[in-house]
Amino acid sequence: MAQPPQSLRDSSPRGGASSAPTKSFPSGGGGPEGRRGSARRPSKTRDNLVYAAVWLACAAPLVWLAFRAFTGDLGANPIEALIRQLGVWGLRLLLVGLAITPAAMILKKPRLVRFRRTIGLFAFAYVTLHLFSYIGVDLYFDVGQLVKDILKRPFITLGMAAFVLLIPLAVTSTNGWVIRMGRAAWSRLHWLIYVIVPLGVAHYYLLVKADHRPPLVYGAILAVLLGWRVWRRFATR
Amino acid sequence: MLIRHRPDLTENDVTDRGLYLRRREFIAGAAGLGLAGLGLAGSGGAAAAAPLAFTKGFSTPEKPTPKDDITSYNNFYEFGVDKSDPAENAGRLKTRPWTVRVDGACEAPRTFDIDELIKGQKLEERIYRLRCVEGWSMVIPWVGFPLKDLIAAVKPTSKAKFVAFETLMRPSEMTGQKWDVLQWPYREGLRIDEATHPLALIAVGLYGETLPNQNGAPLRLVVPWKYGFKSIKSITRISLVDRQPPTAWNRSAPREYGFYSNVNPAVDHPRWSQASERRIGEFRRRETLAFNGYGEWVADLYRGMDLKKFY
């Protein structure tokens, strides 16, 4: 979701398999032509397969959670477990999204960037389900309690702020919006991710009773991912 | 202390029928689970669940939480911080031999062997609500004896103003103690009048059998009108003291966990409301009752105290 570095911009943003299908090799990339093509760029079929794998990997935790929920495998307090797992997976995917640009540059695989939108939107989906299960299932749409929680409980205040800031990023995630807003303005807007993910980590940290190691691990990963960007900005000047 | 009602008698008639029905369910369930239970007990080296002889005592008529939930969803940080950790890791704990030292401001300090202690007590089943500070609750059929009987046995002196409790410290078996997520050993405390209240229980059993390790074997405190963390598990020492003793969660986060920690829907925890709770097994939250519904019997202990200050 964040601004792609200069060298990667030409390949971004690109839709994945879900965007309008374009021409593909009739042979499915198996022929010599396809193979020759893959020396420079992977074939369309392979592209689509890789994309499908990413998509499935993002959806797998949700499917797994749903399966566990329906088979009664979420323990004595399934509502709490569901909300917690959805939140944790939202945060994980946000971090994966932030890791893509550094990974693409370090591994010299600029086309990795094409997965950023999918991962970001999946993160948004998990966070949205996380929030809705808190409001709808835990609070049972008790709006009064929700307002009290937002005002009085710092961890909910931060979490809610992170969610609200994610909305414009999700809405403007399409190619159409990049064109409509202009790349510079779009990029500036998507800088919000550098606020949102720290809010998410703080939200988790404040929720934990005593063992702060898990949120600190996420915090450390976030620090590395942000630190790399700062370092690069100064190093390449 | 004035006890307006005799808890031992009040609700017996109400409970009888429910108990009778539940016991049949339990026997049916035990038949199915018997093999699995035996297998676990044999392999883990932990004491096998043994039936206890007991009478029926003061109980809520509410439907007890299923045993599976009570034994798989625990906060027992000595075995890990996740709710599922104690059920997984507590099998390592050796609960025999086990002694409990009862000392301090008393004329007859003693070290009790756990089996002798249990043999010397008249055990009763008490079905109590348990309200966790995290906003969930259960209904638990404990088997045990009043804490006041144990305290009386050592003849407390007038200097005994508080009671301090200590959990076993044994990192080789309580692997959670290898890391200081709390200051080990876990400590808890009660004022002497709280400790000698007839509702304060030392539990040695659950659902008619000896206490599973994850629930605090071989003996634990149960103070039903306080948040669950006050009910210290796997106790090795009980001391009568003249000043308020330090307690584990209070030392960890004093603003969040007071010494008293009575269930109080009017005083929120900084990170969550205490106005409602989710009873394990239920979908909708229910309102939390002052003193967890035991105000009729315990509110007098706190007469004149500002419970927002002494939370």
From TrEMBL, chain A:
Q: Tell me, in one coarse class, where this protein mainly resides.
A: membrane
What does the Swiss-Prot or TrEMBL cofactor note state?
A: Binds 1 heme b (iron(II)-protoporphyrin IX) group per subunit.
InterPro entries, from UniProt? Answer: Fe3_Rdtase_TM_dom (IPR013130), MsrQ-like (IPR022837)
> What is the topology of this protein in the membrane according to its UniProt annotation?
Multi-pass membrane protein
**Assembly notes:** Heterodimer of a catalytic subunit (MsrP) and a heme-binding subunit (MsrQ).
User: Would you identify the family this protein belongs to, as annotated?
Assistant: Belongs to the MsrQ family.
Name of protein: Protein-methionine-sulfoxide reductase heme-binding subunit MsrQ
Taxonomic source organism: Caulobacter hibisci
Q: What does this protein do?
A: Part of the MsrPQ system that repairs oxidized periplasmic proteins containing methionine sulfoxide residues (Met-O), using respiratory chain electrons. Thus protects these proteins from oxidative-stress damage caused by reactive species of oxygen and chlorine generated by the host defense mechanisms. MsrPQ is essential for the maintenance of envelope integrity under bleach stress, rescuing a wide series of structurally unrelated periplasmic proteins from methionine oxidation.
Q: Which residues cross the membrane?
A: 49-67, 87-107, 119-135, 155-179, 191-208, 214-231
Residue ranges occupied by any Ferric oxidoreductase domain in the UniProt entry: 86-200
Compositionally biased intervals (Polar residues): 1-10
Matches recorded under PANTHER family: PROTEIN-METHIONINE-SULFOXIDE REDUCTASE HEME-BINDING SUBUNIT MSRQ (PTHR36964:SF1)
Keyword check for Metal-binding, yes or no.
yes
Keyword annotations from UniProtKB, A to Z:
Cell membrane, Electron transport, Flavoprotein, FMN, Heme, Iron, Membrane, Metal-binding, Transmembrane, Transmembrane helix, Transport
Q: Which cofactor does it need?
A: heme b; FMN
Q: Which domain of life is it from?
A: Bacteria
UniProt-annotated location(s): Cell membrane; Membrane
Give the span(s) annotated as Disordered. Answer: 1-42
**Is Nucleus found in the keyword set?**
no
Automatic annotation (TrEMBL), chain B:
Q: What is its EC number?
A: 1.8.5.-
- Paste the cofactor note: Binds 1 Mo-molybdopterin (Mo-MPT) cofactor per subunit.
Q: Name one GO molecular function term.
A: oxidoreductase activity
- PTM: Predicted to be exported by the Tat system. The position of the signal peptide cleavage has not been experimentally proven.
Q: Does the keyword RNA-binding apply?
A: no
- Catalytic reaction(s) noted: L-methionyl-[protein] + a quinone + H2O = L-methionyl-(S)-S-oxide-[protein] + a quinol; L-methionyl-[protein] + a quinone + H2O = L-methionyl-(R)-S-oxide-[protein] + a quinol
Which residues of this UniProt protein bind Mo-molybdopterin? 74, 77-78, 132, 167, 215, 220, 231-233
The portions of this protein that span the membrane are: 26-54
Cofactor dependency: Mo-molybdopterin
Q: Which UniProt keywords apply?
A: Membrane, Metal-binding, Molybdenum, Oxidoreductase, Signal, Transmembrane, Transmembrane helix
Supply the PROSITE patterns for this chain: TAT
Residues forming the Oxidoreductase molybdopterin-binding domain are 94-249
Family, per entry:
Belongs to the MsrP family.
What do we know about how this protein assembles, alone or with others? Heterodimer of a catalytic subunit (MsrP) and a heme-binding subunit (MsrQ).
Relate the protein's function as given in its record: Part of the MsrPQ system that repairs oxidized periplasmic proteins containing methionine sulfoxide residues (Met-O), using respiratory chain electrons. Thus protects these proteins from oxidative-stress damage caused by reactive species of oxygen and chlorine generated by the host defense mechanisms. MsrPQ is essential for the maintenance of envelope integrity under bleach stress, rescuing a wide series of structurally unrelated periplasmic proteins from methionine oxidation.
Under what name is this protein listed? Protein-methionine-sulfoxide reductase catalytic subunit MsrP
